[in-house]
Automatic annotation (TrEMBL):
The keyword Membrane applies. Keywords: Cell membrane, Membrane, Transmembrane, Transmembrane helix, Transport. It comes from Flavimobilis soli. The keyword Amino-acid biosynthesis does not apply. The lineage of its organism: Bacteria, Bacillati, Actinomycetota, Actinomycetes, Micrococcales. GO terms for biological process: siderophore-iron import into cell. InterPro entries: ABC_BtuC-like, ABC_transptr_permease_BtuC. This is Iron complex transport system permease protein. It is a multi-pass membrane protein. One of its GO terms (cellular component) is plasma membrane. It is found in: Cell membrane.
Length: 346
């Protein structure tokens, strides 16, 4: 009797867990839609909801409709970049088994930024397609460099060593960027505003060349969900389960690097989205990457959309770039994670 009764609670628990996750997924999708509509309606000029609907339907006969038309590509870009950074952060944390992993903290976005700035200053890069290739190359080289530096010494690539290597690399690359831009008045204004990280001035023309890279990175990262679950058990256990650890880690890292490079090329370096979002999503869906990765993408899009709206509202009629808003939110979160863990555990 006991033997036959035991499986029932387990099955019920699994089903309930799936139902809860699907419920949270519906909530997250609803929040994304609400954030998108809010992004279209709120700004230096407030637009009524019925005017938003009319503008989306094609109306262009007033200032409110024109304002919505300008905000549509900006809203789309914020959602795409937020999803890319949130997903990339979740993958990086899974690959390195590092709770502090984030494209900004590990210096990946700064490496992409330096590559783009050097390309603009020294090689005359102007097209969005050339910038995204250069940004992905810079992100990849920086990721490999940080991982190699963090792996030196006893204990290999511990989370603390990777975070320190990433912070030092990011600071050094930022200095290189300043050195490249210094004295170049022809590009300094554009580069400095881009370096803050933001989605203002977005157009579909600048977004279109980046979309294939974002799509490719998204597919690769989502396809690596099962491998990331195996890597979370440790390299030896993953290898025992038949996983090729080096290939799994390399493919997942490639997907994250493509997402980071593409997002940085079009929006500039935006930090802490990849740190905050995966941790928040784990509280909702747990560590299983088949749930965590899509949730991180949706939550990242929500965070960047809402951050962009806040940046437009708090300093009206001026705007604060969304990269500043995410830094204000993410820096205390980063400190809290570090304080919650003993240094020897990191």
């Amino acid at each position: 009797m006991t033997a036959t009764a035991t499986p029932a609670p387990t099955v019920a628990l699994v089903r309930r867990s799936a139902r809860v996750r699907l419920l949270w997924l519906a909530v997250l999708v609803a929040l994304l839609v609400a954030a998108g509509v809010t992004s279209l309606a709120v700004g230096s000029r407030q637009v009524a909801w019925h005017d938003v609907v009319a503008a989306l339907g094609g109306a262009r006969d007033g200032l409110d409709h024109a304002a919505v038309a300008v905000r549509v590509p900006r809203t789309a870009l914020a959602a795409l970049v937020g999803a890319a950074l949130g997903l990339a952060g979740a993958v990086m944390q899974g690959v390195t088994r590092n709770p502090l992993a984030d494209p900004g903290i590990l210096g990946v976005t700064t490496g992409a930024s330096l590559a783009v700035v050097v390309g603009i200053a020294w090689f005359g890069l102007t097209t969005a397609t050339s910038k995204v290739w250069v940004a992905i190359l810079g992100a990849g080289v920086t990721a490999v460099f940080v991982y190699v530096i963090g792996s030196l010494g006893r204990g290999g690539a511990t989370p603390l060593k990777l975070a320190l290597a990433g912070a030092a690399t990011s600071a050094a690359l930022s200095s290189f960027i300043a050195g490249v831009v210094l004295g170049r008045n022809d590009i300094s204004g554009t580069v400095r505003s881009w370096q803050v990280g933001g989605v203002g001035g977005a157009t579909f023309a600048t977004m279109t060349p980046v979309l294939p890279f974002l799509a490719a990175g998204l597919v690769v990262c989502l396809a690596c969900a099962r491998s990331l679950d195996s890597l979370a058990l440790g390299d030896d256990v993953a290898a025992g389960l038949g996983e090729n650890v080096a290939v799994a880690r390399g493919v997942a890292s490639l997907g994250a690097i493509v997402l980071c490079g593409a997002a940085t090329s079009v929006a500039g370096p935006i930090a802490f989205v990849g740190l905050v979002v995966p941790h928040a999503c784990r509280l909702i869906v747990g560590p299983a990457h088949r749930w965590l990765l899509p949730f991180s993408a949706l939550a990242g899009a929500c965070l960047l959309l809402l951050g962009d709206v806040v940046g437009r509202v708090v300093a009206r009629p001026e705007e604060i770039a969304v990269g500043i808003i995410t830094a204000i939110v993410g820096a205390p979160f980063f400190i809290a994670i570090v304080r919650r863990r003993k240094v020897r555990e990191l």
